[in-house]
Design brief:
The structure is a homotrimer. Chain A contains 12 helices and 19 strands. Chain A is of the alpha/beta class. The first copy, chain A, has an 8-stranded mixed β-sheet, sandwiched between helices. The longest helix of chain A has 20 residues. The two termini of chain A are 27 Å apart. The N terminus of chain A is likely disordered. Chains in contact: A-B, A-C, B-C. At the A-B interface, α10 of A face α6 of B.
Chain lengths: 446, 446, 446
Amino acid sequence: MLRPVPGPAVGRPAGPVAARMRERMERLQPLHRSLTGDGVRESLAVLGESVPLRVRTVPSGARVFDWTVPEEWSVRAAYVADGSGRRVVDVAEHPLHLVGYSTPVRARLGLDELRPHLHSLPEQPDVVPFRTSYYTRDWGFCLRHRDLLALAPGEYDVVVDTTLAPGELTYGEVVVPATGVGPGGRAGQAEVLVTSHVCHPAMANDNLTGLTVAVELAAHVAALPQRRHAYRFLFAPGTLGVLAWLARNPDLVPRVRHALVLTGLGGGGPLVYKQTRHGDRGIDRAVRHVVGRRGGEVRAYSPWGYDERQLNAVGFGVPAGRLTRTPHGEYPEYHTSADDLAFVGDDELVDALEALTEVVDVLEHDAAYTNLAPYGEPQLGPRGLYPATGGRSADEEVMAMLWTLGYSDGATSLLAIAETAGLPFATVRAAAARLAAAGLLAERSR
Amino acid sequence: MLRPVPGPAVGRPAGPVAARMRERMERLQPLHRSLTGDGVRESLAVLGESVPLRVRTVPSGARVFDWTVPEEWSVRAAYVADGSGRRVVDVAEHPLHLVGYSTPVRARLGLDELRPHLHSLPEQPDVVPFRTSYYTRDWGFCLRHRDLLALAPGEYDVVVDTTLAPGELTYGEVVVPATGVGPGGRAGQAEVLVTSHVCHPAMANDNLTGLTVAVELAAHVAALPQRRHAYRFLFAPGTLGVLAWLARNPDLVPRVRHALVLTGLGGGGPLVYKQTRHGDRGIDRAVRHVVGRRGGEVRAYSPWGYDERQLNAVGFGVPAGRLTRTPHGEYPEYHTSADDLAFVGDDELVDALEALTEVVDVLEHDAAYTNLAPYGEPQLGPRGLYPATGGRSADEEVMAMLWTLGYSDGATSLLAIAETAGLPFATVRAAAARLAAAGLLAERSR
Amino acid sequence: MLRPVPGPAVGRPAGPVAARMRERMERLQPLHRSLTGDGVRESLAVLGESVPLRVRTVPSGARVFDWTVPEEWSVRAAYVADGSGRRVVDVAEHPLHLVGYSTPVRARLGLDELRPHLHSLPEQPDVVPFRTSYYTRDWGFCLRHRDLLALAPGEYDVVVDTTLAPGELTYGEVVVPATGVGPGGRAGQAEVLVTSHVCHPAMANDNLTGLTVAVELAAHVAALPQRRHAYRFLFAPGTLGVLAWLARNPDLVPRVRHALVLTGLGGGGPLVYKQTRHGDRGIDRAVRHVVGRRGGEVRAYSPWGYDERQLNAVGFGVPAGRLTRTPHGEYPEYHTSADDLAFVGDDELVDALEALTEVVDVLEHDAAYTNLAPYGEPQLGPRGLYPATGGRSADEEVMAMLWTLGYSDGATSLLAIAETAGLPFATVRAAAARLAAAGLLAERSR
């Protein structure tokens, strides 16, 4: 079971939670993550300090559906030195300086020969871009455009001291089991799957924010007294990591009722929810409600982005939405060295975490109820549920009870009622609880 | 059967109808109505002068679903007098001065003790508010805030000379039967239910307007040569009255195909239709069409308002819409002494009545027809249905025939055709009649 | 089979196609077309020079559903001469001067008697209006309002030297058969029907444009290497012509999967597509996509217009849309002598033809595909389908492949994917072809 955690974020002052999330990001930031390798293992170890994370491995060469797990990549050193021996670009200075999965090189090259291996952003001359070459054997360096322009003609010593050798792909898995709340006290089989990619080096919004928020969310659901769903959190390299989990767990895939990909939760801008491929699944309704009430934005699915495109694939059909703030590619700091710890805000992370706990609340408690006093409006006054003096506008609490009674036909869910009424789910859920306690409402078995 | 009435409103000059509606309101205005009592009985007697109204009673103490019929409330006198004997508030001056269902009191109280029993509107210092305490035994007075502020400290004599004693709840029912127009000349079983609450004292828009318009509508449908539906009008105290009817007539409830609650039809503003809980019933389609073409407004259902919330309850599922002008709570005169006969306009009442007769026309005559010359467009010219010279734009009458022929597939109703064509229902109905007379169209049995 | 034609318009410089379309219109313009007669026969002969057109005839007096084929109308001469013998209006000057189907007259009339037979447009005093009197025996002249005002009182000689005599109604039919592309190489039974009315005299936009574009479209589909559908083009008098085809081909009517009425394609304004009666048929989806991406307009069905109202009639249910530019009655030149060859533009005709070839492309190639590597995203790189260096935005070609893979569940069509993706159908179709060639996708049999 879960080891003790500082406790759920919700209902606690934002300060400690924010500090905890930031401290975790600061420890993760300098680790050299990639698709494989020690950086991923070290990162999983940091995450596992707060939640009972199990490390899973898949050997190099293993087939994962259409893919093959690549060799493991290790970096000892990588730099370019000019004729005077001065290192003009060096991975020791910043992980982004080396193109991910660069093959080993030791050569003296003229600037003309070197140039095709150098990547910069002319329109953002002061930042280092992020590049990888996972599936094509190549090498390269990324540098500030300003520095690239300053390179003098002449000969350069190139050292890429890397290893590509059989090893493994590594990902972390945290499982919070369901509790016995179903009919007969049986634990449900349905799962909620949350994924966050662990392969991006150095950058904070993409994706230290997803990782640190997912850890807090795991702690939150573990602290819930009851859970209708099991919750599974994957901290895995993009694409190949989640595909490996899907390949190894064919029996679990159909149990995933709701899935959510978390990334980019700390930059500016409102929350942005990207719907599942079908756009009408339970996770869509839940997150639309929560994000909509927080002034966030809802977008249609597209087959571009993060692990949602694997989960939503035709062969799996896992209904996976994605929660971010400003999505990838839409802010200038994206995939550059400017996506650093100063770029992400504590308030944004806490707000994202609160939204996610609200989503969990909907997933756990949305249900259809049956009105047990369906012949007209029951008397609320004698049951202590209604203000005594008539003629005044009823307050939101009373209205939530009237909406719930008026629509609880055994088929309409509380979330649907909340949406129709324009009320928060939590208000309608509380009204349903009050009415159920008064014997006016009964939950339909789900 | 119905006794002779002055005849239907439609097609007659607005003057006499408006005068008749106003005269009826003037006679109803001073009667002391409440949930029960003589005021309701006297009001029903006035309404029954124009339509064959039957008075129904339910004894105090009777269970009505979740409710119990309260004791009957009679008021002989009620006032507050100051030390000099001057009555500072007196129900004899205006029915709203006494909180409805106030319990008997005879006491001398200091202003501090009296104060919690006095209700006023600080933001509207010159009007008397309307308050009731039907289900909590209490007493109180309502007065102008200006008068309340003028009360000097000191002792006051309070007299509430009321009786709460076993008696009855009273409501009125008018039934206009269907005529034999169905297949084989049989009268239909389907009913249209119209309700208007009779429990509000003194106020004109809420609800003398609903009562007087409902009476005229009853007279109108009674004068129709044929009726596919029976029409039932209830003049009943809010909530408990309609629930009593529902409780006593379980066999009739499933026959109610369309229901409409009438109130607040005389204030300013456009007609406002509140849809049924489902929002897609026949009454919704009919009233949306009529009110929409008159520039009115359509709103979603909410479980707050008048008797529509009882009728739409999950246990009954009667599709009840509500027609008002500016709805309750949205105009400052609402539930105050400012809602007087000067506040309601004759033109607004006549307009509401006309809209309702159009709704009846849709309910009575909407049907799907089958095109009997379905292979292309039939020749209208030789049948005398078409202008002889081609090349000009056809007028609305011809267009209505073409829309009707073009869509009459035995499933699409005339109202649906009218909506698609953007034409008034009456125009399409007339076109269908002309085409049926020419042998080009036949009504499907409904 | 088809005789050699200059080749399909698409992919060729606009110049020759435009010139060919204009030359055809110039030859058609002076012919005296009407519902019947030599003008129609001569026009069909001109059209038949480019495509293998068969002439069909229906004898006068034949019943066509609710209609009867009228007598054939021939004009030898028609004029009005004043007392001095000067012809003030003469059909020899312009075909529109004589009301279509005018009965023979030879009389001397005072201006007062003559006046009801003269038609002009006071608001457009310099143009001659178009009038017919097909089904009411009458005669009349159309003239410029300016000329009508100049007529002096006095006696006029009226000569209408026409014949109404048993003859025939004539229409042209071009059939381009399907090729064997179905399962087992069988040719499909489904047809695409294109109609364009041939009865309007003198006017260019209405309808020389529809005729000349339809001829080019017929040549285009005939040059396609494969056709899933047969394509049938009708060049027929309005209403009666298409009804005659429907009456004579009861077995073919159910095979018409898509129908399109072409007219008014050369005036200004964007393309305007009028949907079928149901609004959700395959032809609607195809043309909405094409016209929408070209900035055109989509309108709802109405039972007014051209042959679409016969085809969409309840008894046939042929899903017929209509493509025009500014629709009939919405431009001042409509049905007047101002609708001449200068009013129509070459670029507009070529643009309309291109849009129609795109529609044909959708009708021929839209299908649902099944993703053969459905477990996550397949590797595009090793198959040469993907840019080698990651981290950059994928281009439209890659996105089209991802959309196609992501949605190809064996039920979602390429057109639906294109609409969801906001991509042109052609781009998605090309992506599907590339993926199918790589073994990643297979077309479901349709």
